[in-house]
Amino acid sequence: MTLDKKQHSIGFIGLGIMGNSMARHILSADWPIHVYNRTKAKADDLVGRGAVWMDTPGEVASQSDVIITMLGYPHDVEEVYLGPGGLVERARDGAYLIDMTTSSPSLAQKIADAASARGLRALDAPVSGGDVGARQAKLAIMMGGGEEDFKTVLPLMELMGTNIRHLGGPGAGQHTKMANQVVIASTLVGVCEGLSYAKKVGLDPKQVLETIGTGAAGSFQLNVLGPRMLDGAFDPGFYAHHLMKDMDIALTESGEIGFDLPGMKMVRGMFENFKNEFGTDFGTQALFKLYDR
Amino acid sequence: MTLDKKQHSIGFIGLGIMGNSMARHILSADWPIHVYNRTKAKADDLVGRGAVWMDTPGEVASQSDVIITMLGYPHDVEEVYLGPGGLVERARDGAYLIDMTTSSPSLAQKIADAASARGLRALDAPVSGGDVGARQAKLAIMMGGGEEDFKTVLPLMELMGTNIRHLGGPGAGQHTKMANQVVIASTLVGVCEGLSYAKKVGLDPKQVLETIGTGAAGSFQLNVLGPRMLDGAFDPGFYAHHLMKDMDIALTESGEIGFDLPGMKMVRGMFENFKNEFGTDFGTQALFKLYDR
């Protein structure tokens, strides 16, 4: 099937920094769009541009053929999708439900099962690229769910991202995002340790970073977050508490199949120490503070 | 001072895969060059092109104004430089001694002190870029030692590398290389864990790699070594036992200043397990074997 902005309507739930930019791209492409957010004020700008405010997620669902969610934690996702008056209960027959939150693969499977039982089409579609990627419509989007459903919603996804892939059935998008976060966790520690070592032994760490950033030690984490570490620029970017959530999901999922991730487990412990000392309202690069003292 | 191929002669000691390519670039630029290697046969090709074989490192030193070494382990470096009949004993007055082995920063300092006491000029200049970088004369070269001495030998270094930096006094080059290896160690674990997670949960890991390699999880380790892991291509590249040596040096150096590198310490332990099970005649990417079973 083909989505058509004359016949079909979009719902968007979750208008934080990421969701706001993403919904704006859909609106700018002239799709009719109904929106909901826990904090209503964050929808003001979108409503001023023509989005229609709804008072509950269920009401958004009742008006929409495609419902996109960009929420915080898996328990938010579970409530919005599976709770009483939630999306699976209220969605129109045959509607597409696309969760772009980074959330649990098992929950994505559970939602897909519930959706399927009601004749709905669920896709999991977490993203990477952060606030900048969202603003520039250059997100990577990792999708799990039915192949045909993926193809149907692809034109909508292309309004928000550039590297959009279908990785498998329900949960495959979330699993791919978890693989991404698992890689990031230990890479981040390598960057913290290398740069703090450089400082401790008396080198100019910025010069070290420029020297090693182009070779085998090079990474997004080193080349983008390394300079922020050295400048003491610890604002998010990507929140420490979000990475902690993601690591918890990955540890749960890997634990369920009896697979050990000792590196990431250590990183999770480091962030626990970090949280106890500094709180978590920082970007992930602030982990450097544990070393740089 | 300016080095001049009509007046000055180069010595090159250590003609393994890396050293061979590096010496060839110097020879190709028409410098007179004397060479030595523990296994003589590895010098045959260079001698055929005009390099002059010497029977000991000390004899190379006695013929050279600039002596370059590319050896294996710190104990090799110590013996060749500081042992009886070694470079510091036999070098011409005012000669430049450039150790390009990845070795201990403390030893670099010790060599610089001994060299200085004899009126010699020592530089530490480890490289990154591997056999390919050496072959293509595109090494990154990280130099420690006197600023003036660095400037004098820079034209020679430019025959072998492209990103050549002076990072500080004696040992600063080695410390920078250690920072590089510290970053690599944990990054490698992140890549192993992310890709093995992807396989374990039933995703197509190659597709996952393509998806996540361009974003915040991206790194040289992921994008270059990740495909080799998934193809079971475990040949070196960069030998596991060399990384183990480097991690040992970094742990010794950081231990001496009471600085903890818990991530790298864990990686060192993993490689110990790896070695016990598989040996170490593999590239570092073979660490994946510990996860992929």
Task: Characterise the protein shown here.
Two copies of one chain form a homodimer. By secondary structure, chain A is of the alpha/beta class. Helix content of chain A is 52%, strand content 13%. Chain A has two domains: 10-169, Rossmann fold (3-Layer(aba) Sandwich), CATH 3.40.50; 176-290, N-(1-d-carboxylethyl)-l-norvaline Dehydrogenase, domain 2 (Orthogonal Bundle), CATH 1.10.1040. Chain A contains 14 helices and nine strands. In chain A, the strands form two sheets. The first copy, chain A, has a six-stranded parallel sheet. In chain A, strands 7-8-9 form a three-stranded mixed sheet. Chain A is elongated and about 65 Å long. Chain A starts with 9 loop residues before the first strand and ends with a helix. The interface between A and B is large, with 66 and 66 residues.
- Given the helix and strand composition of chain A, which structural class is it? alpha/beta
Unreliable stretches of chain A: none
CATH topology of the largest domain in chain A: Rossmann fold
What is the CATH architecture descriptor of the largest domain in chain A?
3-Layer(aba) Sandwich
Number of domains of chain A: 2
Order of helices and strands of chain A: EHEHEHEHHEHEEHEHEHHHHHH
Query: Whole-number radius of gyration of chain A?
Result: 20 Å
How is the biggest beta sheet of chain A arranged?
6 strands, parallel
Arrangement of strands in the largest sheet of chain A: 3-2-1-4-5-6
The general outline of chain A is: elongated
How many separate helices of chain A?
Answer: 14
Helix content range of chain A: 40-55%
Number of strands of chain A: 9
CATH class membership of the largest domain in chain A: Alpha Beta
